Amino acid sequence: MAVIAKNCPKIRVTVVDISQKQIDAWNSNDLPIYEPGLPEVVDECRGKNLFFSTDVAKEIDEADIIFISVNTPTKTQGIGAGRAANIKNCELCARKIAEVATSNKIVVEKSTVPVRTADAVRRVLKVNHKGLDFQVLSNPEFLAEGTAIDDLMDPSRVLIGGQQTPEGLKAIETLVSVYAQWVPREQIITTNLWSSELSKLVANAFLAQRVSSINSISALCEATGANVREISRAVGSDVRIGSRFLSSSVGFGGSCFQKDILNLVYLCETYGLHECAEYWNQVIKLNDYQKKRFSEKMVSRMFNTVTGKKLAILGFAFKKDTGDVRETPSMFVVRDLMAEGAKIHVYDPQVKREDMFSEMAYTCNVTKENTPRLEELVTTSPDAYTACEGSHAFAVLTEWDEFKTYDFQRIYESMAKPAFVFDGRNLLDHEKLREIGFEVYAIGKPDP
Fold this sequence. Notes:
Blueprint: H1 2-7, E1 13-16, H2 20-26, H3 38-45, E2 50-53, H4 56-62, E3 65-68, H5 88-100, E4 105-109, H6 117-126, E5 134-138, H7 148-153, E6 158-162, H8 166-179, E7 188-192, H9 193-224, H10 228-236, H11 257-270, H12 274-301, E8 310-314, H13 329-339, E9 343-347, H14 353-364, H15 374-377, E10 378-380, H16 384-388, E11 393-396, H17 408-414, E12 420-423, H18 430-436, E13 439-442
Parallel strand pairs: 1-2, 3-4, 4-5, 6-7, 8-9, 8-11, 9-10, 11-12, 12-13
């Protein structure tokens, strides 16, 4: 919304939320999320044509276009638990719009939702008893955390889906006219509602599939002595394949990939497409295998025990340039190492301790109640040098650029010997580390 405000100065954009705490944060200089470039955009537009408010009813009534941008988490209970998306929040938004609106609106799904969610939203809006017309559009985002502002300022495409009726096509063109103020018209794709909704799930599934594909090859490389980076380069040089998302790692994380694939699996199962469901579910299985494989390698290479040993974890966010810890691979590695009795010291330049423990509780069910020594087993360090001091090993689990700049001679001298390095992102110069004296293990590369 901030990028729309920046590029459309004549359009008034208001972001609403029922949480006063969130709105207060958006109205402050300490934004509630970390994203490079976002503070500058917000500062430029806030108070001019970008506003943040908790007066939901007033802003709905005054708006011409309403974007539904709410969380659609995977269901934890009931039908489809563990796979299906819970669209409760989308329905609640639709009901609120129907309740307070006094004029016709265009309602836009911005959240990632199962195909045909727009039909549920449309049906809720239709029974408003006021004779109002609501046109429902789908307009999913294809941005990536860490590069979101650049992705929105110069998008590869903008996708807008709507009903293929005169009214629906008019609504589509209204939203097209907003994006066309900075996006070339040929990069704005229009489709029917269901194609737009499904395209978002498929896009994330294809990206995750590439990560799991190269990660499966990384295991084969370690077994055969091949180098996964050399294979990625050779394969990615084929223009039919391309080089994006061919970097082997400890696994993918974030709020979208796993959730959207599980949603896709559930949709396939719902329509009786069981072979299709199993195909996409294998992407998740391989990702889980990669995370577990990394943890097990750490233990096995350190003489099959890490009990009582201090281990440094560099990076807890699921990727660099974000503080997002949802489904982060680091969390699963930390969980596995804690189960082995290791003392974990985590350093991440953007992740807050409370966010780390909140995600561990939500996703891994690791809490202070069921893990009495949790506070003792997991320490958050102020910097990497403190995290590594006295440790038996450090593991790189997020590809923060700053990790490449450290004085590794200093780190080596401060560690217990032998000093182990486990590079889950293939970020560091392994030969230089070995020259210093480290014992280095990396994803998809032969063991020393």
